[in-house]
What does this fold into?
Amino acid sequence: MAVKTVCQNKKAYHEYFIDQKIEAGMVLTGPEVKSLRAGRANLTDGYVNINDRGEAMMYNVHISFYQYATHNPNEPIRPRKLLLHKREIRKLIGKLKEKGLALIPLKIYFIGNGKAKVELGLARGKKQYDKRAALKEKQSDREIQRVMRKNIT
It folds into this structure.
């Protein structure tokens, strides 16, 4: 099945250790789906919370107005319900009660049958020294790749 990625939260991989990934559907309106197909979404400050009725809700995810919508324009930042099974939500509630864990959206994409999905990550926050170590490792990997390319040619 072909997967078309709409947007990714690259900042999340820098800010958090991702322990587990979960796929969920989203409840969207028609203009929101059209806007997603145009690639107009932003996950940077998004997070997921489970309300008292046992529903997973996604907050602070910006899906822009669809400029050709004639009526019923969507609000760009509104809480959106996520579609998960009850047992998945119960597992998430148990894990979110642990100290330092958060549920954040990592990417929004379309699967082969045209449905929009969101990939959620069960995340644990990084300390400042963890971020610095990850940056140093990334830079050294780039340097090694650069040297390897020079030696090959």
Observations:
- The helical segments are 10-15, 30-37, 86-96, 128-152.
- The domain at 4-126 is CATH 2.40.280.10 (Small Protein B; Chain: A;).
- Residues 128-152 form the longest helix (25 residues).
- The mean pLDDT is 88.
